[in-house]
Amino acid sequence: MTTFPLLAVLLPFLAAFAGLLLSRRPRLAPGGRPGGSRPPGAEAVESRGSTEVDGAGERRRAHGRAAWIAVVPTAVSAVLALWLAWGPGFAYLEGAEPGGPVGRDYGAIVTGGIPISLTLQADDLSAVLGVLVTLVALAVQVYSVGYLHDDPRYPSYSAFVSLFTSAMLLVVYSGDLLVLYVGWEIMGLCSYLLIGHWWEDRGNSRAAVKAFLVTRLGDVGFLFGIFVLGFAAGSFRIADVLAAVPQMSTGALVAATMLLLAGVAGKSAQVPLHTWLPDAMAGPTPISALIHAATMVAAGIFIVARLFPAFQASGPTLDVLAVAAALGMLGAALAALAQDDLKRVLAYSTISQLAYMAGGLAAGSDRAAIFHLVTHGAFKALLFLCAGVVIHHVGTNFMSRMGGLRRQLPVTFVAMTVGFAALMGIPPAGGFFSKDAVLLAMEQAWAGGGLTDAAALLLYGCALATVAVTGAYSARAWLRTFFGPARAVAALPEPQPGTAHVVDVREAPRSMLVPVALLTVPALLLGFAGGVHLDVAVAAVSVALALLGAAVVYAFWRGDPAADPARLLGPLRMPCERAFYVDDLYAAVFARPVMALARLVVRTDDVVVDGAVRGSGGAARGLSGILRLAQNGNVQLYVSGALAGILLIAVGAVVFT
């Protein structure tokens, strides 16, 4: 078992390598045979005859190879992760004492200073996260086979998903902070490539660049935080760093954790670096599920839990984390209530739920936060994959063009109902138990914990308000998608002349429905894995608030099913829909001044630098023109000049003697 962590990381990495090299579809020669040259810009499939048939067949074979290369190693990694987590992972969620790690040390890299240890191991915490990552990644890989079956770039897509999975597993199983950082940065690269998968659309490419830049901004602080911790502890090994925490100065701990918090805010989309996540919905829906449930956003919460003793010893950092979590959870929930795009509703929901986890960490309960991270991974992956089925079916992301889909998509309707129940925290869904644990931790912090009174009160108050708003936006999305008048035909593009609209009344392909059906089980029952330790009063208040929010939306919708319940927000609707203008603020404070400065630099380069070069060239040409006047081929002028020179020399000699 000591090599299981290495194998779990290595298998998806090798799958990515093989997928990029071996699954590329060869070009077609005339007549449809592979291997011939083709003119630039030609399509992969010829337009007529046997060439078209051969091209389609070759595409299917390339997709088939890519699917096997992607799915099988991920499945094996999932089995290894389950083996590592059997016992220790469930014990961690139930609050048992941690056991010893399972893994190996593969040597060290000598740097001339503090060495970098190449250690991969699985302890109680990483065992839990390893299962979450591999199972969600496996579901996404299987789902993508059907979702992108007509996409010519599916082979590279599946390879990048495998690399994404390997990078996250490296973060989870790493025993050294700098090795962890390698996986952390590879995830950033993969997110850029996958969000911008359909890069031909300028909006998609801009969303990918935005995600890359915002997360890189946080990663600068994250790297310096690692340096501070490592030099303060004399080692980058996580076990050594945690052992040295009691001996570290308060200033070093606060500085290190504040810097780490910047990276956490970037990766886990926390205030103020949360703006990239809603725009990341431009990528394929399976990637949204992977990012929101098991990789990028989970990494930040995992880091705080992994280094929790250091954060516990830094009171100011916990206060900052609590305030950011309070603002993020309520603000994102209100933004979700006003969105028309189904995927953006789920994106703002993710920001809100991640803030719940961050609030649980700030309140002093890392186990409650990780418990909610695990249950959230299950039901949020389920919700995104169900949203992909709905979008695949109706051809639009907008709920204003959906409605009445429960009869056309019965499996998806049941699965998404379970997902929304878990999101709202309705028993017996998994989200009910984990949200109760987080709220209980916040209540105890308010009663007396590591937070200041103001931060604890703000955190708990915003958490309770968010429960009601979560019930409202979940009910709104559920009702507008599956009930009311059917509006799917209006969502389709205008038909070509001589054709008619064809509305697909079938469910999605089996490769998409199987992951949806399987994810329904953990979304519904995973809460029992953490042990049932309910506080009846907190649970009752939570369920009552969620049902109250849902009831208000239902009452409004019942009166006019065609109307949008977001109108309940009144004058707040537009600020909520624009996510309180944070993007506009960043554009005004950062983007536009930087663009103006860039234009000034371009103008300066053109006028001053290039002007000087052009001016020197012009001056040289002008001077050469003057000198050329003396070289006109007139012998009399040359003789006159020579005599004049001799005369001047003679006069000068007489004068100076």
TrEMBL record:
Keywords: Membrane, Transmembrane, Transmembrane helix. Residues 28-59 are annotated as: Disordered. The chain crosses the membrane at residues 6-23, 66-86, 125-145, 157-175, 181-199, 220-239, 245-266, 287-308, 320-338, 345-363, 369-391, 411-434, 454-473, 512-530, 536-557, 637-656. Residues 174-442 form the NADH:quinone oxidoreductase/Mrp antiporter transmembrane domain. One of its GO terms (biological process) is ATP synthesis coupled electron transport. One of its GO terms (molecular function) is NADH dehydrogenase (ubiquinone) activity. GO terms for cellular component: endomembrane system; membrane. This is NADH-quinone oxidoreductase subunit L. The lineage of its organism: Bacteria, Bacillati, Actinomycetota, Actinomycetes, Streptosporangiales.
